[in-house]
Design goal:
Rossmann fold, seven-stranded mixed sheet, alpha/beta, about 280 residues, two-stranded antiparallel ribbon
């Protein structure tokens, strides 16, 4: 049987084939894009400005100095996530995000006129978490962090950061900040030793549960809230200075813990009843 097509049909067949290929590629691209987790890092409540450059710095993705989070950002992007820097939270800024990270909100000791966490901000953030967002709160000791206003947010999730400072570290005596009694938790999988310094403890209530304790005082905690999830730690912890071994001795494993935390947060997103964003 002759299965050849008339010559006038061949251009149409080729066009149909091309269309099918393009449609298939579009579907694949759409699925790939929709699976990309979006991570937002606050630069409104933490809004310190360098006296040298006049630009924002300190715990930011673009800060490659010791004070920055550029290496943590690389961990996120290495896992296919999209990172962004967020100004004052609003529905416009938060709705496209899957994870929202607030680190060390400014105090008057650091910034003359800090952008405090206000009731309207709390309502927006709480609604976002309840609908399935993953919130990360990373405080600091009371001398270096606006705990009063941060606690007005964190208490909604059963967590209050205390003003006392735990684990002060003198110069390079890193063992003063060593934690070796680590719990069986995904953040500490295959991790034997981490470093934190000058940490705020956390008082818990409601559904909040401890992750890491130090002599009975909570250092890290978590809470499920509505469809969302909150992770809290009383220290900025994994900024560039202390994520690798630029300063830390080789037996500290902050990078591995940072990678575990990254995976844990991304997995929380994937487990929530929330659409990922294209």
């Amino acid at each position: 049987m002759d299965r050849s097509y008339p010559s006038f049909c061949r251009p149409l067949i080729i066009k149909l084939g091309v269309i099918c290929i393009l449609v298939f590629m579009g579907i694949v691209a759409s699925l790939s894009g929709s699976a990309q987790v979006s991570i937002g890092l606050d630069n409104w409540f933490n809004h310190e400005t360098s006296t040298k450059t006049g630009k924002p710095y300190h715990y930011l993705w673009g800060d490659t100095a010791d004070s920055g989070y550029s290496r943590w950002g690389d961990i996120f992007t290495g896992r296919g996530a999209r990172i962004a820097t967020i100004e004052r939270p609003s529905n416009k800024f938060l709705d496209p995000l899957d994870v929202y990270i607030i680190v060390d909100p400014d105090s008057t000791a650091e910034t003359p006129s800090p952008n405090n966490i206000l009731p309207d901000d709390i309502l927006v953030i709480e609604r976002w978490v309840k609908s399935g967002g993953v919130l990360v709160l990373m405080a600091n000791d009371g001398k270096h962090c606006g705990l009063r206003y941060l606690n007005q947010l964190s208490v909604r999730f059963g967590m209050v950061f205390n003003g006392t400072m735990l684990r002060p570290v003198l110069n390079n005596q890193y063992e003063m900040g060593a934690f070796t009694e680590l719990p069986d938790h995904p953040v500490f999988k295959d991790v034997r030793k981490i470093f934190l310094k000058e940490v705020a403890s956390i008082s818990l209530s409601g559904d909040a549960t401890p992750i890491l304790k130090d002599n009975g005082q909570v250092i890290m905690a978590e809470c499920r809230y509505g469809k969302g999830f909150v992770f809290a730690v009383g220290d900025p912890w994994i900024y560039n200075e202390y994520i690798d071994h630029d300063r830390l001795p080789q037996d500290f494993e902050n990078r591995r813990a940072a990678e575990n935390l990254t995976d844990y947060l991304v997995n929380q997103v994937k487990s929530q009843s929330r659409n990922l964003h294209e």
